[in-house]
Amino acid sequence: MKPDNIIENNGMEIGIYTLGDLVADPQTGKTISARQRMAEILEAAKMADETGLDVFGVGEHHRLDYAASSPPVILSAISQVTRRVKLASTTTVLGTVDPVRLFEDFSTLDLLSDGRAEVIAGRGAFVESFSLFGYDLDDYDGLFEENIDLFLKLNANERVTWTGKFRTPLRDAEIAPRPVQKGIPFWVGVGGSPESAIRAGKYGAGLTMAILGGDPMRFKPIVDVYRKTATEAGFALDDLKVAVTGHAFISETSQLAKDNYFPYYANYRGFFNQEHGVNAMAREEFDKLTGPDTALFVGSPQEITEKILRQYELFGHQRFMAQMDIGGMPFKKVAESIELLATKVAPVVRRETKKELSQTALL
User: Can you list the domains of the chain with their CATH numbers?
Assistant: First the structure.
């Protein structure tokens, strides 16, 4: 029999996510079709499930250079070819979606997946969805705040009466269907803004940090203010969840990982920054970005494990999710990296973080 103060856990959750970008392979000059990209997303999700990863995420963009504009539809398809992996939006652009429709979609996904749906809400890297869906960009912050508030009320209640600024009121509205889970897990995605972390803490939502490069230490104040705000709002520290997401690529050796990944990462950076006049990336800059104290997860399984655990010392987070399929990378290379994450990295990270949590519970 285990002592009462031992917390049951399986260590840190490890997962992968995709945004479904459609970019020409820099080695061949060819761009795959949206249809093929979708097939590859489903295949990656099946790999995540079969290799024992914990979470699979799909992001949302509304541009011709991305294939994924409807995460709940894609995740519903994935739910029928997987059995256990959690299914998350990474992220839902919450300012330009009706919260009632969002809840209905993810509650339906939860029913189809037998309780595996999650929502990670963010404000998006692009703003096309505002004009596309008839929202005013001037209401950027107000829409996000209001939609969080309404979604969480829908998540908690079968009938809702609610009044806000940006949509019609609800009067004893029936909120259906209800999910398998008591409530759909809800996270707020942040890219470094303390205001977003404070907002997540105020509502007791999970905090998902996109740490895409540089020194991860700069995110420590984000986590601290999140936990401080949440505890002051009356939420228990043990119930607060923190996740880290980042770009990653794993090969058997560090040099092989860097050589394989550089053309695609540089291609992705050029694609993403083309609207901002950023110069092309040099190999020297890339090598600095992959150093041991940075947040770009490129290297051997041991190096990636060490980076995740180093960040765990900073944040004490419960989840890590890697984005691997960027810049036109062929799926074969992506699949090899997923396999190494699941078989070489995840078991060690889970064991070490499980050990630490058990030791902490004994204090």
Answer: 13-362 (3.20.20.30)
